[in-house]
Amino acid sequence: MTEMRESRSDRGTSEKQRTPRRTVRTWRVRRRFRHWERPEARPWPDVHEDVTYLTRELGRWHPDTLAARSRVFTWLLHEGRHPEILRLAEAEVAERTAEFGADDPDTLGCRSSLAWHRRRVGDLDGAVAEARAGADDSARVLGPDHVGTHGSRASLAQFLAENGEAAEGVRLLRVLYAESQAFGWERREETRFIRKGLVTALELNGDFQEALDLLEEEIEAEAGTIYGVDENLGDHEMKRLQERRTRLVAEVALQDWNRRRKHERSKDAPGR
User: Fold this and answer.
1) Of 104, 75, 79, 78, whose CA–CA distance to 92 is shortest?
2) In the chain, at which residue ranges do the beta strands (DSSP E only) sit?
3) What is the spatial distance between Cα 193 and Cα 152, in angstroms, rounded to a whole number?
4) How far apart are CA 109 and CA 82, in angstroms?
5) Residue 35 backbone dihedrals phi, psi, to 5 degrees
6) Contacts 24+ apart (CB under 8 A), 37-45
7) Cβ contact 251:203 at 8 Å
């Protein structure tokens, strides 16, 4: 662990030495990425050209370059351009692995994101394989109780549930949820992430009432969430959760109706 800290410190020093200073032009280009949504006046070729400029002038790992690239991922995600996101995510993992090593915490985080991008393009087998390898490496490097390891394990469990192993996904997520809750307030956001994954797995497993109960807890937590002025996420997330609640309420009602109907038929069966 000491060697890792020294390595990251040396890396930061060498990066600072070789990174050019900001100029008025780089500041102006960086400002073009301040919007939460891609401005319609900015076509994608211009966006990618700006990222290339920041990379050339400031360096691949300069904070301004990283912030611009992160915003590009956000814009692509909002526009549903998942194959392009996957291509960029694969390239970033490869670049980080070559520059910092496969066990660097930031590389591990990018690998976890890559698993989600595979899932979004429908490659659940690839998502499961990526998440499983990432979770194993995270546990080895960061420790089994590290927040990053918990997140990787939660992603793996959800992917398993979505890939036809709902019961196993529920089992793993229940364990993770209890472990994360034990950390209390310091892991509240991570616990919410795991809870949402558990809701998905429970729904896929046909446990609609339990899924609905947990979703109600998540809606209550979301109602108390305060977002920054520039985030504009609250209304969208709450609307999505409420739509999900409507669907689960209908599933619970249908499941109860089917149970009653089955019970009534069994009472009317000959010999009863």
Assistant:
1) 104
2) none
3) 11
4) 19
5) -80, 145
6) 37/75, 37/78, 38/75, 38/78, 38/79
7) yes
pLDDT in tens, 232-244: 555 788 999 999 9
Which of 203, 184, 180 is closest to 193 using CA atoms? 180
Q: What are phi and psi of 41, to 5 degrees?
A: -75, -5
Cα–Cα distance measured from residue 76 to residue 92, given in angstroms and rounded to the nearest whole number: 15
Question: How far are the Cα atoms of 129, 181, 209, 236 from residue 242, in angstroms, in the given order?
Answer: 32, 24, 15, 10
Instruction: Let me know: does 173 contact 201? Beta carbons within 8 Å.
Output: yes
CA distances from 76 to 65, 81, 164, 261 (A): 17, 5, 28, 47
Angle of helix 105-120 relative to helix 124-142, nearest 10 degrees? 160
- Residues with Cβ within 8 Å of 162's Cβ and at least 6 positions away in sequence, in order, are 119, 124, 169, 200, 204
- Flag whether the pTM goes above 0.70: yes
Residue written as token pair 């997140």: 151
Query: Is the Cβ–Cβ distance between 245 and 219 less than 8 Å?
Result: yes
Cβ–Cβ under 8 Å, residues 133 and 140: no
Tokens of 99: 């520059």
Structure tokens at 233: 């996420």
Which residue has 């985080």 as its token pair?
109
Interval 209-255: pLDDT, tens: 999 999 999 999 998 887 665 555 557 889 999 999 999 999 999 99
Long-range Cβ contacts of 80-88 (<8 Å, 24+ apart) = 82/117, 82/120, 82/121, 83/121, 85/117, 85/120, 86/114, 86/117, 86/118, 86/120, 86/121
CB-based contacts of 5-12 (< 8 A; 24+ apart in sequence): 8/104, 11/100
